[in-house]
Amino acid sequence: MAGCLKDRIDKRYLIAILCFFGLANAYVMRFCLSIALTKMVIAHNPGNYTKFSDNEFDYCPNTNDNKTASISEGTVNENISTGGGGEFDWSEAAQKAIESAFFWGYLLSQVPGGLLAERIGGKHTLSVGILISTVGTLLTPLAAREGDVLGLIEVRIIMGIGQGLVYPSLNVILANWAPTEERGRLGAIVFSGANLGSVVALGLSGIILSWCDGAWPGLFYVYGLMGLLWLAVWCRVGHNSPTDDPTLSDRERLHLIKYHEEAKLQAMTVIPWGSILTCIPLWGLIVSQIGHDWGLFVMNTDLPRYMKNVMHFTIAQNGLLSAIPHLLMWLTAIASGWWVDSILIRKVHSVSATRKLFTTVSSLGPALGIIGAAYAGCNRFVVISLIAIGMSFMGCFYPSLKVNPLDLSPNYAGTLMALVNGIGAVSGVFIPYINGLFVTHNTLNQWQVVFLLSAFILIVTNVFYLITGSAEIQPWNDPKYTEKMEEIRYDKYKNSVNGLPPTGFLNPMSAS
């Protein structure tokens, strides 16, 4: 099969497609728990409590029930949130802890993952990350049943550690396989795997759960087996770089070697941490990533809850409708990837201007859609349409902001992606808790605050990126520049201590 594909498609595109499915698998395993929890956990009736609002239009009617949801003096009708079956009696606080646990592990392994990918290659690091996540997915039902909340939290942290290796590995692979003029389309192919994964995690999972009551463990077994299947193919076909691939055609090899020479790609022994951490364009990337992750994680973790508790969709409707924005994002990502490369090939705009243009579209589009949905009330069609159309523009994020670390430094692509993606993932840790502060009774006004906050963060972080962002390759990407700067620092230090450097201080110029 690999041989037939090789004859029909350039190997760099085959690598990109395999990485696409690898990331899709990672996202399926990451987010399927969000909708599975709606079936795993016992849904309690809210019963009687102090009436939050005198305005009955703060709550949407439950059209799935024969009775009309209404608010009576001092109580909320039980049909606003009907009781339901479930295996676990977990509080909202426990569920938030479970959802955020993944991101604690995710944060821990980002930078080690980037360093490891640059040392041993993206193929191997990606394989390890997906393997850890796959094993965690297969163990999820056992962890929940035997270890309860704490057991599931532990497994989710370990899964997060595994998936923290994924994005840095993918960036190192792209640094080796994606020439500058093809970076938009290849990056869009790879990173839009996140959208397919979200579509499967939400849409397919919702359908399966609606068909089979109590079938939630099957989700994790099926998705775990999918991860193992991908690993088998990837280990057989994937390669770290063109120099490692004996099946590469001479034409493609020469093309990629020319790109490697232009980008000064080579194995690095010294990481210029000082230059990296003081790089203003990098911090522009990081801030913008936080904004995009905030909007995306709200859609992944909170949208299913909004669909269930406010719009009162069934589990099957919930999954399918929550998946629609991600499907549109996927299509937009692929189209915008080709569009970005077309602009760069024809030199219509500079690389920096093009990245900023498409990043802005990927911020303002979702922000406007979310704002519209916040004021659409209980009109299901309008709410879903505005969220779906608005979030579709976030697909422009992949050939712009997501590949921007490659523009800044191909040699340190893994390290930069680790910093950008790792710090951006802070959103995933705090979103469940911050939004939980606002949403206590699932009223329209409370969810309006959540939506408006997300839109505000998207817009403000994008403005910061427009001011500070760049796609110019940084001088510290050049090994000679890095060595020269280290030599200068060494000479200054040596002079300051009268030629007696401390034990272990490396003079780069004397390194073998």
Walk me through the structure.
The protein has 512 residues and is mainly α. The chain has 20 helices and two strands. The chain has a two-stranded antiparallel sheet. The radius of gyration is 24 Å and the shape is globular. The protein starts with a helix and ends in a 16-residue tail after the last helix.
Secondary structure: elements and pairs:
Elements: H1 2-8, H2 11-40, E1 71-72, E2 75-76, H3 92-108, H4 110-120, H5 122-163, H6 166-177, H7 183-191, H8 193-211, H9 216-237, H10 250-262, H11 273-277, H12 280-309, H13 315-345, H14 351-374, H15 380-392, H16 404-408, H17 413-424, H18 426-438, H19 444-468, H20 479-496
Antiparallel strand pairs: 1-2
Helix pairs in contact: 2-5, 2-6, 2-7, 2-8, 2-9, 2-12, 3-5, 3-18, 4-5, 4-6, 4-17, 5-6, 5-9, 6-17, 7-13, 8-13, 12-13, 12-17, 12-18, 12-19, 13-14, 13-15, 14-15, 14-19
Radius of gyration: 24 Å
* Overall SS class: mainly alpha
Strand order of the largest sheet: 1-2
Low-confidence stretches: 1-6, 45-54, 66-83, 502-512
Shape summary: globular
Oligomer: single chain
- Helix fraction, binned, reads 55-70%
How do the SSEs run, as a string of H and E? HHEEHHHHHHHHHHHHHHHHHH
Strand content: under 5%
> Helical region count?
20
Mean pLDDT: 81
Q: Count every beta strand, where a strand is a DSSP E run of 2 or more residues.
A: 2
Largest sheet, in brief, is: 2 strands, antiparallel
List keywords for this structure.
512 residues; mainly alpha; two-stranded antiparallel ribbon; 20 helices; disordered N terminus; disordered C terminus
